[in-house]
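name: query_chain
kind: protein
chains: 1
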Amino acid sequence: MFTQKTLDFLSENRFMNSKDWFAEHKEEYQKYVLQPMTELANELAPTLRAIDSQIVTEPKTAMSRIYRDIRYARDKMLYREEMWLSFKRDKKEFLQYPEFFFVFSPYSVLYGCGYYSVSAETMNTIRKMILENDPMFQKAIEAYESQNEMTLEGDSFRKSRYPEQPERIRNWLDRKNIYFARSSSDFSVLFSEQLAPLLINSFKSMAPVYKFFLYAEEKSREI
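structure:
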């Protein structure tokens, strides 16, 4: 289970920015960061595989590395302060699959469903399916509107391209990229034994949205 020591380690490790310091405190990293992330991934795995049998749930694959790639970075901080679990289909097959995600740092907790990066082709397919009132979209929007936990996020066009559409539909159509998320600075959620059940329920509720994105992704490759 995550504790305050998890966040303390991430903060101090980032501040020290030292390979020697990290080596000396690697047991703390394994105990307070790596172990609870692995346990959480394993708890979520059955639910995620039930939603999509092709989702990769193996912790080592889903988990972010604490080491940063600084070759092209402006700053030379060696370690991440933000850690995440990202559950999606094998990226070797295709890079832009939708995903379920869980992210935490000493500043916030974030979890949700959608795209980290989405192609213009896929967004065009999503819009086409929305405008055609595709049944998969109807299930997705009903699932989204039946919950009050996650909000629709993603950069939007400055001016709506679909002013004639109802606002609830336009909110999807005008996105350049799209995902649904819940963000909080209440760390009692992170430290609670109810974290896994909370994420399981949230991911289940958004399964129709994930399946809509997945279907749109596959259709966009046929075009």
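note: The two ends are 45 Å apart (CA to CA).
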